[in-house]
């Protein structure tokens, strides 16, 4: 039994959810997102809540029950409040800035790294060493943050590189004489 799937998703004020033709459409103030619904589950909207039920007791139906509910919750939260990932840059001379539709990163290479900002994603650099990535699609926000972090991952000896603000770097001891 899915513990996640049993709980209905509450629909906040200003968000509409429609299910038609095997596709759930969620509209809110930040945008519109669609989720294809598996044929193993049924999605119903009633009394300001979205509930997901498995059609059979097969393994596939039970797997998709919790997954579909979690994905619907992510869509509802995304179009109502949005998602944010914060990155920190550590290292002497390492910095970031937004130049038009590109994120310019100076990471100790012989050249600047230009990252084109995708549609639906907003990137802000309040300080030269902090990057804030915001959007309504949770998967895309996380993917953009991972791609930016991939340019210079934090190393364990000095901690230089790009890391998530919630991430802790396990530091290693340097070599001894």
Automatic annotation (TrEMBL):
<dbReference type="GO" id="GO:0005840">
    <property type="term" value="C:ribosome"/>
</dbReference>
<keyword id="KW-0689">Ribosomal protein</keyword>
<feature type="domain" description="Large ribosomal subunit protein uL6 alpha-beta">
    <location>
        <begin position="91"/>
        <end position="164"/>
    </location>
</feature>
<protein>
    <recommendedName>
        <fullName>Large ribosomal subunit protein uL6</fullName>
    </recommendedName>
</protein>
<keyword id="KW-0687">Ribonucleoprotein</keyword>
<keyword id="KW-0699">rRNA-binding</keyword>
<dbReference type="InterPro" id="IPR019906">
    <property type="entry name" value="Ribosomal_uL6_bac-type"/>
</dbReference>
<dbReference type="InterPro" id="IPR020040">
    <property type="entry name" value="Ribosomal_uL6_a/b-dom"/>
</dbReference>
<dbReference type="InterPro" id="IPR002358">
    <property type="entry name" value="Ribosomal_uL6_CS"/>
</dbReference>
<keyword id="KW-0694">RNA-binding</keyword>
<comment type="function">
    <text>This protein binds to the 23S rRNA, and is important in its secondary structure. It is located near the subunit interface in the base of the L7/L12 stalk, and near the tRNA binding site of the peptidyltransferase center.</text>
</comment>
<comment type="subunit">
    <text>Part of the 50S ribosomal subunit.</text>
</comment>
<feature type="domain" description="Large ribosomal subunit protein uL6 alpha-beta">
    <location>
        <begin position="11"/>
        <end position="82"/>
    </location>
</feature>
<dbReference type="InterPro" id="IPR000702">
    <property type="entry name" value="Ribosomal_uL6-like"/>
</dbReference>
<dbReference type="InterPro" id="IPR036789">
    <property type="entry name" value="Ribosomal_uL6-like_a/b-dom_sf"/>
</dbReference>
<dbReference type="Pfam" id="PF00347">
    <property type="entry name" value="Ribosomal_L6"/>
</dbReference>
<comment type="similarity">
    <text>Belongs to the universal ribosomal protein uL6 family.</text>
</comment>
